[in-house]
Amino acid sequence: MLDLVLTFLRYFFLFLLYAFLFAVVRQMFRGLRGNPVMATSAGGGISSSEKKSFPSLREASIPKPGARLVVIASPDPRLEKGMTFYLRERITLGRGENNDLVIADPFSSQEHAVIFSRDDQYWVQDLGSLNGTYLNEVRLERPTVLADGDRLRIGGVTFQFVRWAYEVESSQ
Q1: How far apart are CA 15 and CA 99, in angstroms?
Q2: How many Cβ atoms from other residues are within 10 Å of residue 153's Cβ?
Q3: Structure-derived torsion over alpha carbons of residues 15, 16, 17, 19, reported in degrees to the nearest 10
Q4: Is 26 left (phi over 0), alpha (psi -120 to 50) or beta?
Q5: pLDDT for residue 65
Q6: Residue 150: per-residue pLDDT
Q7: What is the pLDDT of residue 56?
Q8: DSSP characters for 109-136?
Q9: Dist. CA 107–CA 120, nearest whole Å
Q10: Which residues are CB-contacts of 8 (< 8 A; sequence separation ≥ 6)?
């Protein structure tokens, strides 16, 4: 009788061990899919499963000195104050997951705004959003050149555009 009880306990503990390992692996994959680690810059590529909830640039470039957006204020916990996003030739911003920079704010549109580079300058353009894009608290009506220190607000999220003076001088 004692042998039967010991055998049962061995199999029971083996079952618990496998159940625990299964739960750990399941949580790891769930965490990778739903809660990716936040980056302070636009480094490395992001998989398609992470694009849904990851606010950084989708096809990120290697971080380098130059033009970037820095989060100043945000109600979204995924866009923490101080997070930096380096700019490329063209960056789309909005709530939709197809954007380069996803802003999960109820007051942002699916395709809210675009920042693009032309003639060694960065321009911002509202894409017909309902609530508007604000540059230094003035609603954008047409494409506008960004200057170092400008504040860009989309919904409740405020970014500061940063571009070093030496970069502007060296590109001329």
Answers
A1: 45
A2: 20
A3: 90
A4: alpha
A5: 52
A6: 93
A7: 44
A8: -TT-EEEEEETTEEEEEE-S-SS-EEET
A9: 31
A10: none
**Whose structure tokens read 């739903």?**
34
**Distance (Å, whole) CA 165 – CA 94:** 28
Q: Which residues does 129 contact at the CB level (< 8 Å), separation at least 6?
A: 94, 108, 109, 111, 112, 113, 154
Q: Tell me the whole-structure pTM to 2 decimals.
A: 0.59
Q: Within the chain, which residues score under 70 in pLDDT?
A: 31-66, 164-172
Query: CA-CA distances (angstroms) from residue 134 to 21, 111, 168?
Result: 50, 15, 24
By the 8 A CB rule, do 159 and 70 touch?
Answer: yes
Task: Extract the tokens encoding 6.
Answer: 């010991």
**Residue 115: per-residue pLDDT:** 93
Triad 127, 139, 168: Cα angle to 5°? 80
Element (H, E) at 93: strand 90-94
Contact status, residue 155 vs residue 105, Cβ threshold 8 Å: yes
pLDDT of residue 31: 59
Any idea what DSSP says for residue 75?
Answer: S
